[in-house]
Amino acid sequence: MKMISFDVVVIGGGSAGMASALKAKENGVSVAIIERDDRLGGILNQCIHNGFGLNYFKKELTGPEYANLFIEKVKKSNIKVFLLSTVLKIENNFEITVINGSGLFKISAKSIVLATGCRERPAGAISLCGSRPAGVISAGSAQKFVNIYGKMIGKNIVIVGSGDIGLIMARRLRFEGANVIGVYEIMPYPSGLKRNIVQCLEDYNIPLHLSKTVVEVVGEDRVKGVYVAPVNSDYSFDLTKKELISCDAVVLSIGLVPENEVAIKFGVKQNAITGGAVVDEYLQTSIDGIFACGNGLHVHDIVDNVSKEAERAGENSAKFVKNLLSRGKSNFIKNGFGVRYVNPSNYYESDGILTINFRVSNIFKNAKIIVMGNGKIIREINKNILLPAEMESVILSKKGLRSDLEVLIKTN
Fold first, then answer.
1. What is the pTM of this model?
2. Which domains does the chain have, with CATH numbers?
């Protein structure tokens, strides 16, 4: 079987993959990107709305515009790109088996960056009851049908879940003349960003129903309606108050999960909460030389943060190849009260800066983010409001840090 060798191989050619590959290349190593689609850019290619790039490029862009800026850099960088290529497995010595139109071949790497992105949760993830007629579709698939293929998915539409893609598609479908009946969210708070609640729902008078969800789909060949019901505090359904809503399409926006099957098969340890890899402060996984970043690590709010994180993974992968990745004594970072997860899971005793990303488990108002170490408060940040939909970050100087850390929320 044909074998090709590179210093760093990036699996995934979306925003994370391109950013990490470019940064690795800047650090003087040979780099390849493996992408299963027919072009680079990932999900950005179908995100034709604006709002991208404000932090990273300091200007407002659409998804394809944001992706194209990276694509042009990759073209000029001498990075080898394998399109329409799927990774089948990673073996010992970092030999990657790939298949594409030319057949099977192997790529040998000294370091690997996992930038595999995420996928949408299907209807089965919420045990959606009823028949299985046409017209039940994920928000991302709806986005692709409308934005890429120019096809409408229905005329009267119910959206289940308030994830950002679903909110954006509520507005997009309204633009195309559909009647978006409402967005139904099982939680008592929305799971999408506040700006999308305002710009995609409130500005277009699309109702958001919290603590209320679809409990049954009705229809044979095509969706005819759904039953919705209130959700109790224990997340059971109050079926005594269920009501039938007529519709011909149901859009599911019920969350995203990192796509990590190849990494799992190779033995990369996974975080039970995020669904992505467990990583240290260098974004290195439980296997030395394999790094993870972007939505394949944990689902981000905005693509700008994905790109910035991916650059760190790319730089550190190049340092690993050059044997320049210094590590002192390792200390754990754990989540405390009110914090759903933290990333990274550990840091090393040395000078420098440590960035801890995390999400809260509930809505907290007039609260404090507290970082504890050795029973003492290391950092304290006042926040007017903390939302599960928004990622938070704490930046610490590592000078003098010599203990495990805990991130928690304290309410006044």
1. 0.94
2. 3-119+257-321 (3.50.50.60), 122-254 (3.50.50.60), 330-411 (2.60.40)
